[in-house]
Write a structure and sequence with these properties.
The complex is a heterodimer of chains A (about 500) and B (about 325). The longest helix of chain A has 18 residues. Helices cover about 30% and strands about 25% of the residues of chain A. Chain A is α+β, with helices and mostly antiparallel strands and about 500 residues long. Chain A is built from 15 helices and 20 strands. Chain B has a domain of about 220 residues: MetI-like (MetI-like fold). The chains are: A alpha+beta (about 500), B mainly alpha (about 325).
């Protein structure tokens, strides 16, 4: 069928002297957000990292099963609880043709971790993601040593989030140049950045092959990849169905059937890393009483909501950790759905006629919150859902120990590292920045602090388990589920599968 | 218009911009939501690291001090650095502006080209079936939500009929050197007619979606205005003189009937420039509206403040243009 689009362009082809660029294989990703910057050290956005990660490689990376493996490093040795050595591979080239050296790796770490490391007195916004780094040095020519101020066992889990830059190139182009151009060692190099519209990358033919532990090792399969920015989910789905893109992220659960029913597309999913939960204001009138919190926990039929609203695409949780996270407990007490028990507990707490409460939620999760509120209401919690804007609600609830108003807060917390340090501590430690329930238990605080610096993984897992058991009993939150990350994918695409850390690595992806 | 009048109008801009600056700054500063917390996201961080980040973003200074820094810098067109893009705000806005202006102008052309003939016809054929259909159509045009209508068009013309592209400004194989940032012009300057056609194809659906409410409003204004003019004595006189109907309508009536249409169109153009967010989001159009909305959610103060100032200047200028056009079309009116 001759399309209007084709006709419009064909009408002018006669006047066009150049031949159109012939791309053997293009792979287009319909993606939610544009990169804020291309400088790996100057952002804190997961979407930006996903894009950058196809042009820049890291010292370490993760395989599809979230196992941390060496990438630019040949090997990693933990010399002591505070010292890590990384032997850097030889023969790796930056996109400008220069060789990567251990000095580049040291420069990369220093730029992120040192106060004022970005130059002009500016500190990298990613500094806190690298924990208590005391310093970096090059030893033996090709080994980089990272020394920590105190033990921080999650360093290997956090390093895949950082990408290596060229010292000479950064010194030449400065932060401004690094924001809009790139010189990485990744499988693709920047061809064009149409800001707000698309990032176009060409295959880097001198690529060293990537991690030896993630086959196939070698150059990228496709000639060109394009991250096309389509923020609206319905439009992303339309682009996939129309064949304009090969992968879309954040496929809404209500579009799953539409994509499955289309003969050219499939749905792919992977366990996500974002835990959803309801914070109960423990400083408030009702939820200071454990019986009321327990009653609320028994009022919610998680599986029903997962099945009916989330299309079965979520895993129920009894604690804050995702089932895939390090040290996630599998034996926690389950607060089964029992509205009669809820009513009984409420009556025991002095509320035989139930209580009137509000539940704050962001607009994006209004449907799920309303379903939850409906179940709560049936059990005596007459719940009114109040939709607010994310930043506003965050300020209202994450008060770091300050006064808190409101009854319930339907919210979530992401955990890309899949380490409890990044989710358990901020949401449960007394007065920490994500502690929206206002929970405080010195025993839990102590366990979380000790686990954060414990290098023995078995002991560390034990500490988190102990903390999970206590919290499961104290019940500051109703832990709900971890939704799967859903992707719509063209059947033309081979060799790619989604990753739990939301990265879209296109090195191995092929188009048939 | 005399030079003194022109200077007077320009001078009036100063207090307006000062007022807008105060409002833009205080509204962002007083809106709940901490830019530092939003930037940190779901991560653990020490108090010292958080304080460092706040310092680097300039948010550790008192609000009054920040306001005067903002005001002082604005006088020499320095709007600061975007918290997220880590580049000057003026650069970030300048990158997105051509896309928004291009889409707005094409939507304006679509609206004018559709609304004026339809409005005139509806007036001439008052109370006819055509008039009723046009009136109902205009009501629908104003009422249909842009995001719904946009997605409807997209599903029909892009997904089912494969007639038009889903999103973006131009295909990826079209390489056009950026001269003005306006793709319709740049493709023509480059003599690349294939790319020009591609850019036009990408513009059709967003321009229709964006222009629809304006078409509806302008059609109704034109119809009403035309009906009023047709009742005037001079039109009856022109008819009595025996002038042809066509000459009466288009030479005598339409010129006067268009005065309110032009005024409304000029002011509505301001709304187009500011109200692109939904259309830009639906069609993945890389314009300013989307950028501003994203920035509001992220509490990207410098960018939002600069954008609000830009919108204010645009509105003031377009109102000024509307006034000027009014005097051209109706010489009895003096500024």
């Amino acid at each position: 069928m001759k399309t209007l689009h084709k006709m419009l362009t064909a009408a002018a082809v006669a006047a066009c002297f150049g031949t159109p660029a012939a791309w053997a294989t293009d792979l287009t990703v319909g993606f939610t957000l544009d990169a804020n910057t291309l400088d790996p050290a100057n952002h804190r956005k997961r979407e930006t990292e996903t894009i950058i990660r196809n042009m820049y490689d890291g010292i370490l990376t993760r395989d599809a099963n979230m196992k941390v493996v060496p990438q630019i490093a040949e090997s990693m040795v933990q010399v002591s609880p505070t010292v890590y050595d990384f032997k850097i591979r030889k023969g790796i080239k930056f996109h400008d043709g220069s060789d990567l050296t251990a000095d580049d790796v040291k420069f990369t770490i220093d730029r992120i971790t040192e106060d004022g490391g970005m130059g002009n007195g500016q500190t990298s916004p990613r500094q806190s993601l690298m924990g208590p780094v005391a310093g970096t040095e090059v030893i033996d020519g090709d080994t980089v040593r990272i020394t920590l101020k105190e033990p921080w066992p999650i360093l290997p889990a956090m390093l895949p989030f950082e990408e290596v830059v060229s010292k000479a190139w950064i010194e030449k182009v400065g932060n401004e140049g690094a924001a809009t151009s790139e010189n990485g060692t990744g499988p693709f190099k920047l061809a064009e950045w149409r800001k707000g519209d698309a990032i176009i990358m060409d295959r880097f033919d001198e690529y060293y092959g990537g991690s030896t532990e993630i086959p196939p090792v070698g150059k990228a399969c496709v000639d060109r990849v394009i991250f096309k920015i389509i923020p609206e989910s319905a439009s992303r789905v339309a682009a996939l169905l129309a064949g304009d893109v090969d992968i879309i992220n954040e496929l809404p659960p209500f579009s799953v059937k539409q994509v499955e029913n289309n003969p050219d597309t499939v749905v792919m999913k992977v366990n996500g890393t974002r835990s959803f939960f309801i914070a109960m204001n423990m400083q408030g009138k009702y939820f200071a009483d454990h019986r009321v919190r327990e009653a609320a926990a028994h009022a919610i039929d998680k599986q029903l909501i997962i099945d009916k609203i989330l299309g079965g695409n979520a895993a129920p949780i009894e604690g804050i950790l995702s089932p895939d996270a390090f040290a996630a407990s599998t034996d926690l007490h389950k607060y089964s759905y029992d509205p009669e028990l809820s009513k009984k507990l409420l009556a025991e707490a002095g509320y035989p006629d139930g209580i009137d409460i509000t539940m704050d939620v962001e607009g994006a999760f209004k449907d799920t919150a309303e379903a939850t509120a409906s179940l709560l209401s049936k059990a005596g919690f007459h719940t009114k859902v109040v939709v607010g804007e994310g930043a506003q609600l965050s300020e209202k609830w994450r008060t770091k120990g300050g006064e808190k108003t409101g009854d319930m807060y339907f919210t979530s917390w992401g955990n890309g590292s899949l380490d409890p340090f990044d989710i358990f501590t901020p949401t449960h430690k007394t007065n920490d920045r994500g502690n929206s329930a206002g929970y405080s238990n010195p025993e839990v605080d102590k366990l979380l602090d000790e686990a954060a610096v414990e290098v023995d993984t078995v002991k560390r897992a034990g500490m988190y388990h102990q903390a999970e058991v206590i919290v499961n009993k104290d019940l500051p939150y109703i832990y709900l589920w971890v939704p799967a990350d859903l992707y719509g994918v063209s059947k033309r695409l081979k060799g790619w599968k989604p990753s739990a850390d939301s990265r879209i690595n296109l090195h191995d992806a092929c188009i048939e | 218009m005399s030079l003194s009048k022109l200077l007077e109008r320009i001078a009036q801009l100063v207090p307006v911009l000062l007022g807008v600056s105060v409002i833009a700054f205080t509204m962002m500063a007083l809106t709940p939501g901490d830019p530092v917390q939003i930037m940190i996201g779901d991560q653990a961080i020490t108090a010292e690291q958080e304080a460092q980040l706040r310092h680097d973003m300039g948010l550790d200074r008192p609000m009054v001090e920040r306001f005067f820094i903002f005001l002082g810098n604005t006088t020499h067109f320095d709007f600061g650095e975007s918290f997220y893009h880590k580049r000057p705000v003026a650069d970030v806005i300048a990158e997105r502006l051509p896309a928004t202006i291009e889409l707005s102008l094409v939507a304006l052309v679509v609206a004018l080209a559709t609304a004026i003939p339809l409005g005139v016809l509806a007036a001439i054929k008052k109370n006819s079936i055509f008039d009723r259909i046009a009136t109902v159509g205009s009501l629908l045009g104003v009422s249909l939500p842009g995001f719904w209508f946009g997605i409807l068009l997209l599903m029909l013309f892009a997904v089912h009929l494969h007639l038009l592209p889903v999103s973006g400004r131009i295909g990826f194989d079209s390489e056009v050197p950026s001269v003005t940032g306006f793709l319709l012009i740049d493709t023509l300057v480059a003599g690349n007619m294939k790319a020009f056609g591609d850019a036009v194809a990408h513009l059709i659906l967003p321009a229709i979606t964006l222009g629809l409410p304006m078409t509806a409003i302008l059609m109704r204004v034109t119809r009403t205005s035309m009906l009023e003019v047709l009742r005037q004595d001079y039109v009856t006189f022109a008819d009595a003189k025996g002038l042809s109907r066509r000459r009466v309508l288009f030479r005598h009536a339409l010129k006067n009937a268009l005065i309110p249409t032009v005024s409304v169109a000029a002011i509505e153009t301001g709304s187009l420039l500011g109200g692109n967010m939904i259309v830009e989001t639906v069609y993945g159009w890389p314009g300013l509206g989307r950028l501003v909305v994203e920035s509001i959610f992220l509490r990207n103060y410098p960018l939002v403040q600069a954008a609000v100032l830009f919108y204010a200047v645009t509105y003031v200028l377009l109102n000024f243009v509307a006034d000027l056009l009014y005097t051209v079309l109706n010489p009895r009116v003096k500024l």
